[in-house]
Specification:
Blueprint (H helix, E strand, L loop, with lengths): L2 H32 L6 H21 L1 H4 L5 H13 L5 H17 L11 H7 L6
Helix pairs in contact: 1-2, 1-4, 2-5
Length: about 130
């Protein structure tokens, strides 16, 4: 293997963690620290972490199938880059189009964000400590 191939392989292996974890982590911290109410960065980054978690879980479940798709890593990298890049705001778009619609459709949360489901209430609603 030539030096160029080795360098390209190394950069390709670094691209995933940088695009999928390092940049979103940094941008999330910046969004939290900015704390401006008119800024929609909070929604973008919360949506990203929700979608990234879901993608990771699905990838774990479908691993036996995905290992037979040689370009899966590249497809995932491009998709996550679309979710992450601020020019596209893909995470906010995907959340609005799929997650929010399904939450409303299946009634996971009741009116004004209060859960109808005791299981959901147990994990989401903060408990007062006496």
């Amino acid at each position: 293997m030539s030096r160029l191939e080795t360098t390209i392989t190394f950069l390709h292996s670094l691209a995933g963690p940088i695009v999928m974890l390092l940049y979103p982590l940094f941008a999330s911290v910046i969004a939290i620290e900015r704390r401006s109410k008119g800024d929609s960065d909070h929604e973008q980054w919360l949506a990203y972490w929700i979608l990234y978690s879901f993608l990771t879980l699905m990838e774990m479940l479908l691993e036996p199938i995905l290992q037979w798709i040689p370009i899966w890593y590249n497809i995932k990298l491009v998709f996550v880059a679309w979710l992450v890049l601020p020019q596209f705001r893909g995470a906010a778009f995907m959340y609005d189009q799929f997650v929010r619609k399904n939450i409303k459709k299946y009634g996971v949360l009741g009116q004004h964000g209060k859960g109808k489901n005791k299981f959901v209430d147990f994990f989401i609603t903060p408990k007062k400590v006496s």
